[in-house]
Amino acid sequence: MNKVAIVTGAGKRVGRVLAEGLLADGWQVVAHVRRDDDEVPDGAIRAAADLAQGRQAAETILAACPAPPRLLVNNAARFAADTLENFSAEELAAHMAVNVAAPALLSAAFAAAGGEGDRLIVNILDAKLAAPNPDFLSYTLSKAALATLTDLSARALGGQSIRVNAIAPALMLLSEGQSADNFDATHAFNPLGRGVEPADVLRALQFLMDSPALTGETLTLDSGQRFWRLPRDVQFLEPKP
């Protein structure tokens, strides 16, 4: 049985870690990136497409698969700062196009590609959904919509032996506009005193792959940070030493 996987946003950050982990486990990985000259992990199959282009992007990514894919990881995301005070319909639409519409179109194309045996879609959410705050408003709304898509597509695709689950990690890597000092202070700002790492997401993905009876579920990786109900995004807080 073939082992073809698609990982969107596979050129950097956590997407690259997931792609490299799958490659090490013997998967053929179609690594989606936005531009033709973006790097992909060694051994991966490059699929360059702007997810904002919708159906055309999904078709480009599926066309790069050497066989019907068995795994789809919807990892790529738009992440831009806004609040209710400076909210714009245009920014919300841009987030929804990449963070919700693209995963929906890719999921539909993944299902239509067919294939044998257990197939799995994993959507990457955000742990802040378990304890929301108003920062990054459009991003948060889009991730909430992706969480709903996870549930609805699990219901819709179960009859085709396609499972749909999600992983919701907390802050893992330095964010755009965040200082290194702030990241060092807030990364492990949680009850366990342990920052979430990209390797944790890879382990969660491997768990989902090894759990053929699990569908429609979200694994939250935040070291318990949601219990504190923080009033703002963690990068805007300055924890006391």
Would you kindly provide a written description of the structure presented here, covering whatever features stand out?
- Helix 2 (55-63) packs parallel to helix 3 (89-112) and helix 3 (89-112) runs parallel beside helix 4 (137-157).
- The longest helix is centred in the middle third of the chain and has 24 residues, at 89-112.
- Helix 1 links the parallel strand 1 (4-7) and strand 2 (28-33).
- The termini are far apart.
- This protein has 241 residues and is of the alpha/beta class.
- It has helices at residues 13-24, 55-63, 89-112, 137-157, 180-186, 198-209; strands spanning 4-7, 28-33, 45-48, 71-74, 119-124, 162-169, 218-221.
- The chain has a seven-stranded parallel sheet, sandwiched between helices.
* Largest beta-sheet characterization: 7 strands, parallel
Mean of the pLDDT scores? 96
What is the tally of beta strands?
7
H/E series: EHEEHEHEHEHHE
**Uncertain stretches:** none
Task: Tell me roughly what share of residues is in helical segments.
Answer: 25-40%
Rg, nearest Å: 17 Å
DSSP helical segment count? 6
Protein name: SDR family oxidoreductase
Keywords: Oxidoreductase
Family: Belongs to the short-chain dehydrogenases/reductases (SDR) family.
Organism: Sphingomonas kaistensis
Helix-strand blueprint:
Layout: E1 4-7, H1 13-24, E2 28-33, E3 45-48, H2 55-63, E4 71-74, H3 89-112, E5 119-124, H4 137-157, E6 162-169, H5 180-186, H6 198-209, E7 218-221
Helix pairs in contact: 1-6, 2-3, 3-4
List its salient traits:
241 residues; 35% helix; oxidoreductase; alpha/beta; 7-stranded parallel β-sheet; SDR_fam; SDR family oxidoreductase; NAD(P)-bd_dom_sf; globular; 6 helices
